[in-house]
Amino acid sequence: MRAVRKILGGLLVVGLTAAISGAATSAAFSSSSANAGNSYAAGTVRLTDDDAAAAMWGVTGLLPSATVVRCIRVTYSGTLAAIVRIYATSVADPLDQYLTLAIEKGTMPSATAFPNCTGFSTEATIYAGSLQTFRNTQTSFGTGATAFPGTQTQWNNGDALVYRLTVTVGSSTASQGLTSNEGFTWEARNQ
Predict the structure, then answer these.
(1) CA proximity to 83, closest of 155, 7, 8, 30
(2) Is 6 left (phi over 0), alpha (psi -120 to 50) or beta?
(3) Fewer CB within 10 Å, N- or C-terminus of the chain?
(4) What is the widest separation between alpha-carbon atoms in the chain?
């Protein structure tokens, strides 16, 4: 019996030792870190002008060599950097071949209301040629005339640029009684 007690006592000591060492190995140092509240938002491309949905001109009875000058302010309020281009949005008309078009970029006082050009200061000419050529070659964003504010190479939030459009009737008598209706589109795309 003594031998049995010794064996049982030894087993008890081994069991207690295993239990204590097992409990000790389950305790460990621990640390964690969390990053909550992540969100995503798409950028924007927004372009507006100051025409209040009015046509730039509606002129009749033009004489040979008559010139019509109008200005429009285009403002960018998108959150992404963009490129802005101007292009024609209507099909050619018979008078187009007798009209010259000049498009300049520049600045003017904010108090000057559409379509006036009072105080316009030119920075550069972005197109000069016949209206017919403009309509045939500047027909989409991909082929449109590009202009940037000042010396920038992109448009950023808050940028504005004034475009001065000058149309002159040629002196050919063949233009008598002909008409032209033109639409222009300014389009912004992020880079």
Answers:
(1) 155
(2) alpha
(3) N
(4) 137
Q: What's the pLDDT tens digit per position in 21-43?
A: 555 556 789 899 999 999 999 99
Tell me the domains of the chain and their CATH numbers: 47-190 (2.60.40)
Q: How far is CA 168 from the centre of its chain?
A: 31
CB 119 within 8 A of CB 112: yes
Tokens of 166: 């000058």
Bridge pairing between strands 184-190 and 145-146 = unpaired
Query: What tens digit of pLDDT does each residue of 86-96 get?
Result: 999 987 789 99
What is the Cα–Cα distance from 140 to 151, expressed in whole angstroms?
24
Structure tokens at 182: 């033109």
Residue 12 CA from chain centroid, whole number: 80
Distance CA 46, CA 84 (A): 11
DSSP line for 56-114: S----SPPTT-EEEEEEEEEE--SS-EEEEEEE-S---GGGGGEEEEEEEEE--TTPPT
